[in-house]
Amino acid sequence: MDTAxxxxxxxxxxxxxxxxxISQLVPRCSVTVIADKFTPHTTSDVAAGILIPxxxxxxxxxVVKRWFRDTFIHLSAIARSAEAVDAGVHLVxxxxxxxxxxxxxxxxxxxxxxxxxxxxxxxxQRFPQHVFGQTFTTLxxxxxxxxxxxxxxxxxxxxxxxxxxxxxxxxxxxxxxxVVNCSGxxxxxxxxxxxxxxxxxxxxxxxxxxVKHFIRDGNGLTYIYPGTSHVTLGGTRxxxxxxxxxxxxxxxxxxxxxxxxxxxxxxxYDIKEKVGLRPYRPGVWLQKELLAQEGKKLPVVHNYGHxxxxxxxxxxxxxxxxxxxxxxxxxxxxxASTSKL
Length: 341
Ligand SMILES: Cc1cc2nc3c(=O)[nH]c(=O)nc-3n(C[C@H](O)[C@H](O)[C@H](O)COP(=O)(O)OP(=O)(O)OC[C@H]3O[C@@H](n4cnc5c(N)ncnc54)[C@H](O)[C@@H]3O)c2cc1C
Hints:
This protein is α/β, with parallel strands linked by helices. Helices cover about 30% and strands about 30% of the residues.
């Protein structure tokens, strides 16, 4: 086998970053990204894009921390390069505030973000309903810029982008040697995974250029994230809800919750409503699987189920998927050379 033909199913942040990583790090391979939806129509396009990771019940915390650290280092380098504006990646500082003292005053990711510390009494005076807070600098990844930027990178490395819905991974055999499944919520049907389900999120994108600090309520439900093109106001977490239409009552509720934290938002204008379905799974599924059928074999690397934190860990997760793809390529090359003997 000379060139390994790799198909990546999915063109959200997970699929595109995995495709980019594979084309950079796996020698002698071709990469084709296949998806029924590309930017600006994926869940990743709706994400608020703040880098604050989430713990997954079935993924060990040290693993999530490694993925987050890899992602933070990678995006920090972009943020301090001339690419920062095109990629939509920038540093942002602010406050995470709590109405009661949290179980973990220092979260597992505290030493990855920059300048993490507890808020002082003077800082907390700004939030009279809150008794505890953390302040730090993290990154914001504006996916409306980042996804097109990633697409360009994939193409520049020789990758192809193909619009197509896949009903069964076997459709990709024998045109491809290895399949990487980054189909997010689509994996419920594509690989029959009953453990993945939508967690609906609604948010607002508003113009309020005077807001410079992020504010996040510790429960993660109410947040204000300033960015380069808009300020993101959130949000909701609605389990098993597939409705992609914005709900006007929810938008009003989000707006009033955010105004309670940052009253100057009453003057915000040009308000847009967005809805996305987070691909929730108790743990991220990042593993190799060898499909076999009627004497044929198809190596698959799964990389999906990133729930509420896919942007925060995407690059670390892509690096790990790429390592698994390398192992598949190696074993295909070994069996190809053995069969020639
Ligand atoms: C409101 C909201 C706010 C969020 N905020 C943040 C945040 O601030 N920080 C953070 O880290 N995360 C955030 N997230 C979570 C983040 O958006 C997700 O974890 C991430 O986008 C998942 O990426 P993905 O590539 O797996 O999925 P998607 O972006 O859904 O991409 C899946 C891809 O697979 C394709 N596909 C699926 N099935 C098939 C098929 N059968 N055939 C062909 N193609 C298929 C789709 O077309 C699509 O291209 C937020 C999510 C929401 C909804």
